[in-house]
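Extended Data, panel c. Modelled sequence:
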Amino acid sequence: MNFLIYIEHAAENLQFFLWYQDYVRRFSELPSNEQALAPVWTAEQEERALAAQAGNGPRPPKSDVNGMFKGTDFDPRAKSHHFETGHNPFNTPPRTPNGEKDSIAPSATAWIEDGSTMQSSGSRSYGKKAAEAFETAGQLQPFTIRPFQEEISRVIAIYIGDGGARQLNLSAKERNVLLEALSKTTHPSAFRSVISTVEWSLRHQAHPNFIRWTICNGNRPRVLFARGLGIGGIVGGLAAAILLTLSSAGRGWRALSAIGFFIGIATLFAAVKGMCVVLHGMHHRHLRPWELFADADDASFETEMKKDSFDTLGSSSSYEDEPWVAKYDKRNVVRKVFDREVWIQEPALRQIQDTIFIQAIVVSLILSAVAAGVFVALPKGGYF
């Protein structure tokens, strides 16, 4: 999670995936009568929705919706006729100066288990954002009787709708199809296509990038310093070979330039992979910038940070305001190059780094032998 937040800047995919896995588990534990309120979103329905999005087909008119409720208690014409013919005891009384609390609309309140209602500005905010997302996609508001409808509204406001705190990188077609599915059901199958996209991104983008990042045992200043040393070694070996070739020294002395070539090429090869050979020799790695200042005084902050990052319905995963950012920026370059180190505990990671180190040695041996051999084969200059 730290890699996705601080390096990849795309923690929303993993956070959404974790929420979905938990949501599937909780939905499967519901009684069958509650699950029946949220029918399965079939593949045929999804194909029709995708075809409609691809062809920009017309949206069903509102008159069709009114026709669905014709002859029922939800028919607006039947309601108006009923109100005209007699007194309805369930009518909401008129608002009075002292009756503001009693005249709160049901949509602005949240139901809790003890049968009472409570106002939640956060719930109203999520509900408003979800309503705007449905309206933008041209979909009707879903029924609130469905299981987990309020939670789905929060998910839409955070992950799906435009401007969400953790908005997923979805195309307009994917977002509209998902909103159409969520307007009809809260079944986990409504997320079928989106969760496939998110999982593909995690497996084929985030995970390979994470492996490449963990291979780096030094911070960026240390890796750049190692690359400089590698280039310096190669330049030193080249200078020694040229001077010995132009001098009257024997050909055997020119082979000593292979030492500079070998050290420089091996160091540069490992540094290109993000490794420092000195740190690898001790099986150490640099502490990450956010780990450097995680002392006892910041223990509570670190716990809160981890809690927020794994809160699947939390706020944005921004870290610019965290205390370590300003502290790390104040450190000079020399101190960053020689930052604190820690032992690498993961055996698989050490094995990968050992493989890269062996590759660096083999490549360096071959190239340095070829370079030294070229200078040894040249005739003596005899200039000094």
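The chain has 19 helices and four strands. This feature is highlighted in the accompanying rendering.
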